[in-house]
Design a protein that fits this description.
4-stranded mixed sheet, 5 helices, binds zinc ion, alpha+beta, 4 strands, 94 residues, single chain
Length: 94
């Protein structure tokens, strides 16, 4: 169980981690408020896809702005891809 934000490139120690059955509720000052399935947070697959994390953060932000707490599970890649900055903005900076 992580004691810091599980998102790649963040690992903020200021994040509040709360365990709920099979899930972890993360309140991170950088990434926002989200719930992640405990098994996903621990997988190498999740940790080894840093390119998608930016999209994932954008998704979490959008949900938080709508007063929702997103729940991340095995379909996280699809969500992250949908919110991924375009190839154009990647090439030429944000
Ligand atoms: Zn974070």
């Amino acid at each position: 169980m992580p004691d810091s934000c599980p998102l790649v490139g963040c690992q903020s120690k200021s994040a509040k981690i709360r365990r709920i059955p099979d899930n972890i509720h993360v309140t991170c000052p950088v990434c926002g408020d989200f719930v992640i399935v405990a098994t996903l947070a621990a997988t190498a697959d999740f940790r080894q896809d840093p390119d998608l994390i930016e999209g994932l953060r954008a998704y979490i932000r959008a949900e938080n702005e709508a007063d929702r707490v997103p729940s991340l599970n095995s379909s996280w890649k699809r969500l992250a891809e949908a919110y991924q900055p375009s190839a154009f903005s990647k090439l030429f900076g944000k």
